[in-house]
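A brief tutorial aside. Many learners find it easier to grasp structure tokens once they have seen a single protein encoded end to end. The record that follows does exactly this for Olfactory receptor. Read the sequence first, then the structure, and try to relate runs of similar tokens to stretches of the chain.
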Amino acid sequence: MGKTNQSSVTEFVLLGLSGYPELEAIYFVLVLCMYLVILLGNGVIIMVSVFDARLHTPMYFFLSNLSFLDICYTSSSIPLFLSSFVTSKKTISFSGCGVQMFLSFAMGATECVLLSMMAFDRYVAICNPLRYPIIMSKTSYVPMAAGSWIAGGVNSLLQTSLAMRLPFCGDNVINHFTCEILAVLKLACADISTNVISMIVANMIFLVVPVLFIFITYVFILATILRIPSAEGRRKAFSTCSAHLTVVVIFYGTILFMYAKPKAKDSSGADKEQVTDKIISLFYGVLTPMLNPLIYSLRNKDVKAAVRNMLCLKCTSGQV
């Protein structure tokens, strides 16, 4: 058998909403506004967590890590997405696609682990408050956060290296806004069974295990809260974890909706479903990072007080 001529892919074309030009302008404005809110909201959370001494606690340390993670996650894809509307350039280099895939995977896996670490922090604070300063000391919560980043980075390095070592010798059009790994794997001209198995194992470790851990943690938290005799005490105890629980429900609820919704059977329905999936994926990538700081600031007196103090200090320094 003779060898067929195969040209290696040096760049990918991101299809996005190219087939729906009437939607592009609308989504450009929406995504731009949401991205600016993400940068502002999460930036404020990081600033007040660093500069306000009252927020130098494990919970706000985890929260500032979550905010920094959300900024990194969105900045790995949204600027390229927005520039494609302005410049009409829909391509991304092979190496650029690998970097984007790595950052996306790393931030997603890290967030899953980080949310479980935050659940453990709330568990200790409510179920074992007297030992909280000992269990959640700086020598504990800093390695916990660092471990989340390392675990996410190692997993992402493995998944990205397995994907980028595949030969891409045909179509280079990615039917997505970003270098989403499943869309990229469809273009490979080689067996991807190893990649699929690796992703299944990774999903079990970084999705299923954290969800189970968070669920069990909140079962113990709820049982402890219900044993509190006074209604005011129960309300205060629940308010300390309500923001985290809301973020968890939004984060995992969106993932569940994306992958558990029924698939269309006819071709026209499948085409519409592809567009819907891309739009859902796009808003999942920006909606959750945008809501996180709003949820924590609107439902948290300490954060609101820290923001007011920071603004007052700026006003005072400006007058001087």
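Self-check: Confidence is low (pLDDT under 50) at residues 1-7, 264-269. If you spotted this yourself, you are ready for the next section.
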